[in-house]
Design brief:
The complex is a heterodimer of chains A (611) and B (198).
Chain A (H helix, E strand, L loop, with lengths): L12 E5 H12 L3 E4 L7 H8 L7 E4 L3 H13 L4 E6 H17 L5 E7 L13 H7 L3 E2 L4 H18 L3 E6 H4 L1 E6 L16 H4 L3 H24 L3 E5 L3 E6 L2 H12 L5 E6 L1 E3 L3 H10 L2 E5 L5 H12 L5 E3 L12 H11 L27 H13 L4 E3 L24 H13 L3 E6 H17 L4 E7 L16 E2 L2 E2 L6 H7 L4 E5 L4 H13 L3 E7 L3 H7 L6 E5 L8 H6 L4 E4 L2 E4 L17 E5 L3
Parallel strand pairs in A: 2-3, 2-4, 4-5, 5-7, 6-7, 10-11, 10-13, 13-14, 15-16, 16-17, 17-21, 20-21
Antiparallel strand pairs in A: 1-8, 6-12, 9-11, 18-19, 22-25, 23-24
Helix pairs in contact in A: 1-2, 1-6, 3-4, 10-13, 14-18, 15-16
Chain B lengths: L6 E8 L4 H14 L4 E7 L7 E8 L11 E6 L2 H7 L3 E10 L6 H4 L8 H9 L4 E5 L1 H8 L5 H11 L7 H11 L2 H19 L1
Parallel strand pairs in B: 1-4, 4-5, 5-6
Antiparallel strand pairs in B: 1-3, 2-3
Classes of the chains: A alpha/beta (611), B alpha/beta (198).
Bound molecules: iron/sulfur cluster (2 copies).
Organism (chain A): Pseudodesulfovibrio methanolicus
Catalytic activity (chain A): indole-3-pyruvate + 2 oxidized [2Fe-2S]-[ferredoxin] + CoA = (indol-3-yl)acetyl-CoA + 2 reduced [2Fe-2S]-[ferredoxin] + CO2 + H(+)
Protein name (chain A): Indolepyruvate oxidoreductase subunit IorA
């Protein structure tokens, strides 16, 4: 049976994750091409597309990075295909170059960019607000607040994008991507075949002479879209009263619940902007004229707030506009926070708070899993280089090596930066640099870093942590993998040949669970200079279990002879190990049988799993 | 959908414990009763072993529960129950496991978890509506340690604070869980209800 997300079953209601709802919306619009680079909180969108792709009527790919993903989708929309490209907020930085020009060139088949922003940095290095990209490039923006809207806006956004030939931004935040709610399905017609490319250089080739009129067309398109925003059912005014609230995105849900909690729903007028760019100026102006105070409730940057201030100034309105002066510019909102801001504006007492205080509790930071091959690599690096090397890290599970006792992440900028920033640091300071990068990240943007390091004669030892998958975001395939959840990789790329092809002559490949060989290779490469590469190759055990359906036949146990020295716990910190009665012990349920600890202490032995 | 009283349920546990499966099941149960429901989940960088927090909200639009907003706190691990206490509103309901999953620092002997007594005392300052149960043992008795979570859901449904009882959860298990794990989870549900009443 095909997945319900693909069925033409209007009227059905399913409880969906926001990210699954986006997939359904795209299917209802007639999506033809989907590209992505995975990144939390966006990952379940492409993962769902991928999982159901054998039955779907669209082309799907995991591209090697966001820039490439957007370029592939850009080419597809020029061929008339309704296209979608998904990424997390920082991914848009990678894709920013083609994005800015795509807004000029346009999207004949329709093109929706999903940017999953992450207020609160739940799984990201920053909190950037990508609504600003939309203003920079000139893109319409839809901001859903529920699972139903995630579905409806994905569908309507794609159709709107095709209608105007305008690349559109579907901007979500973590709470929307990861909420679950009922979604009522609409029809899902067969999308048929894309029309194909129609040659028209003045429209599609941005040489300066053509770009200038393209920019004019872009501005005209935005004016036409402003009309759409004026009439959009996603922009609504409700309630009455002289106190006005303007909200967008998930903040709309917080406002609704806050007003309900406070019983203030009839005392305020609320303008919800689900279609927030271009600003529906007439609607907003009428709203601003109908109230005497406005509170703008939006997470992160004062984007709508500033738009409204400009509008008010333009029309000589003197009403009081509040926003970032009463609500924070960082992190997430919640209902009580919003309720208190509204109460304050209306001169009411804040919600009473509970005074319970808790003692400091032991933290539960994320840690590399039991049996993670990165632990083997990091343990060896610590032994060989200790604190003498500076460890340049990158984005992936392996960043977790920053915690003690491994402490193998000293700095980090972004995807692929370990090699290039590591090279820069070494050039500037002459310090020994060991740069760690994962296999997926290597294909994402490590390749260019290697080319740069070789060309500019950087002095850096690059350790490629090849766990045969993209583990952190949920085991998505990358060009190097052998197998995926839905089948074999027909074109596996070999990292060692790639590195050699880029001109690195000193390349070694080891299994990080073989500590002797790994340390020997590190010592050897450590004494050389120039660009050297060590490939630590061993699949992620979670991936092995899920995709290869294999588990290690053995588990570790600590023999009676354990002297309580605790080197294993103190230096390896495998989560399967614990202290018990002055001795070390292994939890056989958590142990993944990597046999690393056996090489650290002679009192640890192997036994058959389950015996 | 009928106009219902708002109920906010905050769930917390450790990655890999099945917190999210339980969350979705509870949300589906509420939906099957014709209730307005949203639910949310936050799991940071942890593949496994980190804290997982999730929510089920009945009659609300927001998927998020802020400090002091939860009517019900469901803690699948006792120390996480304690950590999440600030989310509970005064007088809310707590259903918590008594069986620890020690974090690494504790396993390594560097820090100590609060005792169950400490945790009970802390909870008592917020509410008197509290049920503690040994969810992993109950899960094992039912046939799979993860089903302990379903036992806790069963106890929650039987506690009388939700607009539906254990029968609704039973029907949702039958409708939504794969056939091969249904029996275990139905057994866990039964044991959970029993644990609440004993
Ligand atoms: S073999 Fe040792 S290091 Fe490997 S997972 Fe088991 S306990 Fe951890
Ligand atoms: S998911 Fe895989 S690669 Fe990531 S920490 Fe766990 S074992 Fe290591």
């Amino acid at each position: 049976m095909a997945n319900p997300l693909l069925g033409d079953t209007p009227g059905d209601t399913h409880l969906l994750l926001g990210n699954e709802a986006i997939v359904r919306g795209a299917v209802e619009a007639g999506i033809q091409v989907v590209t992505c680079y995975p990144g939390t909180p966006s990952s379940e969108v492409p993962d769902t597309f991928y999982r159901i792709s054998p039955d779907g009527k669209y082309y799907f790919e995991y591209s090697v990075n966001e820039k490439v993903a957007l370029e592939v989708a850009g080419g597809a929309t020029l061929a008339g295909a309704m296209s979608m490209c998904t990424m997390k907020h920082v991914g848009v930085n990678v894709a920013a170059d083609p994005l800015m020009t795509l807004c000029y060139v346009g999207a004949p088949g329709g093109l929706m960019l999903l940017s999953a922003d992450d207020p609160g940095c739940h799984s990201s290095q920053n909190e950037q607000d990508n609504r600003i990209y939309a203003r920079l490039g000139g893109m319409p923006v839809l901001e859903p607040a529920s699972a139903q809207e995630a579905k409806d806006m994905a569908r309507d956004g794609l159709l709107l994008s095709r209608k105007h030939g305008a690349p559109l931004l579907l901007r979500t935040t973590t709470r929307v991507n990861h909420l679950r709610g009922p979604v009522e399905f609409g029809p899902a017609p067969d999308p048929g075949k894309p029309e194909g490319f129609k040659r028209n250089p003045p429209h599609f080739v941005p040489i300066p002479a053509f770009s200038r009129p393209m920019h004019v067309r872009l501005m005209e398109r935005m004016e036409a879209l402003r009309e759409e925003a004026e009439n959009s059912p996603y922009n609504t005014v409700t309630g009455n009263g002289k106190y006005g609230i303007v909200c967008s995105g998930i903040s709309r849900a917080y406002v609704a619940d806050a007003l309900d909690n406070a019983g203030l729903a009839d005392k305020v007028t609320v303008l919800e902007l689900g279609f927030s760019n271009p600003l529906p100026e007439n609607k907003c102006l009428a709203f601003l004229q109908s109230v005497d105070t406005v509170l703008v409730v939006e997470e992160l940057e004062p984007v709508v707030e500033n738009d409204l201030r400009v509008l008010a100034q333009k029309h000589g309105l003197s009403l009081d506009i509040k926003g970032k002066d009463v609500l924070p510019r960082n992190g997430e909102f919640d209902v009580t926070m919003v309720e208190n801001a509204i109460r304050e504006g209306l001169g009411e007492a804040p919600v009473p708070t509970c005074e319970c205080s808790l003692p400091e509790l032991p933290g539960r930071p994320p840690n590399l899993c039991a049996g993670c091959p990165h632990r083997g690599t990091y343990y060896a690096a610590r032994k060989v280089f200790g604190d003498d090397a500076v460890y340049s890290s990158d984005i992936g599970c392996y960043t977790l090596g920053l915690l003690p006792p491994l402490q193998t992440a000293d700095f980090l900028l972004c995807m692929g930066s370990s090699i290039s920033a590591g090279g820069g640091l070494a050039k500037a300071s002459g310090q020994k640099v060991v740069a760690f990068i994962g296999d997926s990240t290597f294909f994402h943007s490590g390749l260019t870093g290697v080319a740069n390091a070789v060309f500019n004669a950087h002095d850096v030892l690059i350790v490629i942590l090849d766990n045969r998958t993209t583990a952190m975001t949920g085991h998505q395939p990358n060009p190097g993998v052998d197998k995926t959840v839905i089948g074999d990789n027909d074109h596996p790329l070999d990292i060692e040949s790639a590195v050699r092809g880029l001109g690195v002559t000193e390349v070694r490949t080891v299994n990080p669970f073989n500590q002797k060989k790994t340390m020997a290779a590190m010592e050897e490469l450590g004494t050389m200079s120039g660009v050297r590469v060590l490939i630590a190759k061993e699949p992620c055990p979670l991936y092995t279990r899920r995709v290869y359906k294999k588990v290690a036949p053995q588990v570790a146990y600590v023999a009676e002879s354990c002297t309580g020295r605790f080197d294993c716990l103190d230096k390896l910190a495998c989560p399967a190990m614990f202290k018990e009665g002055g001795k070390a012990a292994v939890n056989p349920i958590l142990c993944n049988g990597c046999m690393l600890c056996l090489q650290v202490c002679g009192h640890i032995k192997a036994k058959k799993r389950g015996s | 959908m009928p106009d219902t009283k708002k109920i906010r349920i905050f769930m917390t546990g450790v990655g890999g414990q099945g917190t999210l499966t339980a969350t979705t099941l509870l949300a589906k149960t509420a939906l099957s009763q014709g209730l307005t429901v949203t639910s949310g989940e936050i799991h940071g960088m942890a593949q496994r072993g980190g804290v997982v927090e999730s929510t089920v909200l009945i009659g609300c639009k927001s998927p998020k529960i802020g400090i002091g907003e939860a009517d019900i706190l469901l803690g699948f691990e006792p120390m996480e129950t304690m950590r999440a206490l600030p989310y509970l509103r005064q007088g809310g309901l707590v259903v918590s496991s008594t069986e620890y999953m020690p974090p690494l620092s504790v396993a390594m002997g560097k820090q100590e978890c609060p005792t169950i007594d400490d945790i009970k005392k802390a909870v008592a300052t917020c509410t008197s509506k509290v049920y503690f149960m040994a969810n992993q043992s109950i899960g094992l008795e039912a046939g799979a340690v993860q089903s302990g979570n379903i036992a806790m859901l069963g106890a929650l449904c039987a506690a009388g604070e939700l607009p539906f009882g254990p029968e609704a959860l039973e029907a949702a298990i039958k409708a939504n869980l794969p056939a091969k794990i249904q029996a275990v989870n139905l057994k866990a549900l039964e044991l959970g209800v029993k644990a609440l009443n004993s």
